[in-house]
Design goal:
It contains two helices and no strands. By secondary structure, the protein is mainly α. The protein has one domain. α1 runs antiparallel to α2. The longest helix is centred in the middle third of the chain and has 78 residues. It is rod-shaped, with a radius of gyration of 36 Å. Keywords: Coiled coil, Membrane, Transmembrane, Transmembrane helix.
């Protein structure tokens, strides 16, 4: 295959990406529950602490969104590249089919001309042998 691995390689990449996404989602949920548990169980947890945690959580969320957008752009580029390769492949297949059909017609014409030449040769009853090239 031109330019990369086959379908199995892409499937493994997709599975690895899904596992990484699931782990990130699980970690985000764990952080959220940790913050929630800390706020509800610790009376010394001040408003400033809560605000700082909220800012950190928002920052982590923004970074995760940026990374997600980056991965989406990479996916979109690979998808477009794949579509272009599929288009090229279908064009080559169509061309090959046309060429194969043309070859088949030429072979039939060649056989017809050989039979016609043989028939003319027999009608002529020439003493000189005709030189024909055999393919």
């Amino acid at each position: 295959m031109v330019g990369g691995r086959g379908g199995a390689g892409r499937r493994q990449e997709r599975q690895a990406l899904m596992v990484a996404f699931a782990v990130a989602l699980l970690m985000g949920t764990a952080v959220y529950f940790r913050i929630w548990a800390r706020q509800s169980s610790d009376p010394s947890f001040t408003i400033d602490d809560r605000e700082e945690l909220r800012r950190q959580f928002e920052q982590a969320n923004l970074e995760a969104m940026d990374e997600s957008a980056e991965w989406r752009m990479k996916y979109d580029k690979e998808l477009e590249k794949n579509r272009q390769l599929q288009d090229e492949l279908s064009k080559v297949k169509a061309s090959l089919t046309g060429t194969a059909r043309r070859l088949e017609l030429l072979q039939k014409d060649n056989e017809m001309w050989k039979r016609q030449t043989e028939s003319l040769k027999q009608q002529c009853n020439c003493s000189l042998p005709l030189k024909t090239t055999q393919d």
